[in-house]
Amino acid sequence: MLSLPIAMLVEYLLLQMVFQVILLSTDRWAEKDVNPALFSRELMRNSSNFLNDEEVNRDPQSLLMKAHAATSSIGSATVIIAMLEKTGTLKIASVGDCGLKIIRKGQVMFSIYPQEHYFDCPYQISSEAVGQTYQDAVVCSVNLMEGDTIVSGSDGLFDNIFDQEIISIVSESPGVDEAAKALAELARKHSVDVTFDSPYSIEARSRGFDVPWWKKLLGAKLIGGKMDDITVVVAKVKTVAAPEDEGGDIEQQQGDEQGIAVAVASAEQNEE
Amino acid sequence: MLSLPIAMLVEYLLLQMVFQVILLSTDRWAEKDVNPALFSRELMRNSSNFLNDEEVNRDPQSLLMKAHAATSSIGSATVIIAMLEKTGTLKIASVGDCGLKIIRKGQVMFSIYPQEHYFDCPYQISSEAVGQTYQDAVVCSVNLMEGDTIVSGSDGLFDNIFDQEIISIVSESPGVDEAAKALAELARKHSVDVTFDSPYSIEARSRGFDVPWWKKLLGAKLIGGKMDDITVVVAKVKTVAAPEDEGGDIEQQQGDEQGIAVAVASAEQNEE
């Protein structure tokens, strides 16, 4: 455990590292002549703005509520908001099928599950009354340790890449930047590989989806990656402050270490 | 959200529902002429005793630390401690391969991952210095809602039963008692079924374990349930109090509803 100088402490408390707001709009809005990116971009911008609001900047669910209320664009999006506090507590609010996994000592030790109405139809924060709200979020927190890696991303990532691949890439990458890029690239590669038995195709078969009967007779099965936009955020915990460091006497910290390293990578995909 | 009368509130705060301490000892200790049940039973007893200790009764990790320090038996055990607060926050500390899943609206929305040194060798709290401690625990919390079902159990449960089976049993059971018994019985049945492609055998194959090459040539593959002791705890959230009910004016609650319903079931299995 490392303690932090006061200046850095204040910075931490202010920033609280909302390291990720992943927002995905669906194609339904494009059909209605609505730019599907507008809603998610505005929701993301509002979430960032409210980071300085003391009332909500320690609570991702309240932040989501405020950001949603302040968003006037038409559209909908799945969303995950994660805040890392300097003591190592990662607070998470998630609506829909974004994912977040914690890798510790070469193992997935924590993971957020997708919420959906039915297969491939995720919960979504929406401009319409029929959508979900902050009240539908999965809200949880997890205590992180030095060395833990956070891998978060859109369904386009986790539908196309297995846990073991994520673990390998994280362990082999020299830094979070390389890891994020490698994860996005591998997911993109798998997403367009019609012969890859992806997590998505395995899940689809387990839900009873399959190729037509006549193809089945020929030995075919539902297989392949899932074409989708892919966003990846990788963060690594470098230092964790002891809980008592939140106030009172603060010792000087050696060096210029930051408490977390973050990298974002994405791969856009057009389904048409 | 329902508010609670003061008497019930106090009861809640005192009890704080440590609804589960699952402890499993390994056969290694039996080989050393140590009764493998002693360590886990004492650790469980100590955990229960410390529930009245204000210093640790809101923090499962600290409770585990104290209970471990007070345990003098020889042995080791995997352990999960979960505390449900009246506001619906479930606090969890887990060392090893016990599991806990939250079922909400027919979906798994939260799950604890097993920690292991290598396949089938879980982290364990131990009387020996080589074992793990409270510091190795996965520590997290999740906000529960009315109607959520908590399914927790030993690896003997989750190695023998799929998420979809858990969801079906939970949704079809009239109460937690029936659900716990049905889960334990199905897991037991699968555990002795050498033709069942269990989560355990799928995981084993994915880690590179398999039948000898000559059996492979005959089309055989590593398959079957996993013989093990099975413990299941099922709990259902009936009411959740609003955060402001923790102090101040409390309105009267209608009826005699309890905040949670809990049932435990187990199936013992002898591997010899």
TrEMBL record, chains A, B:
Keyword hit for Glycoprotein: no
A GO molecular function held by the record: metal ion binding
Cofactor: Mn(2+); Mg(2+)
PROSITE patterns given in the database record: PPM_2
Key word Isomerase present: no
Keywords for the protein's UniProt record, in alphabetical order: Hydrolase, Magnesium, Manganese, Metal-binding, Protein phosphatase, Signal
Signal peptide: 1-20
Catalysed reaction, written as an equation: O-phospho-L-seryl-[protein] + H2O = L-seryl-[protein] + phosphate; O-phospho-L-threonyl-[protein] + H2O = L-threonyl-[protein] + phosphate
Sequence ranges assigned to domain PPM-type phosphatase in this UniProt record: 1-237
EC class: hydrolase
E.C. no: 3.1.3.16
InterPro entries: PPM-type-like_dom_sf, PPM-type_phosphatase-like_dom, PPTC7
Family per similarity comment: Belongs to the PP2C family.
Name of this protein: Protein phosphatase
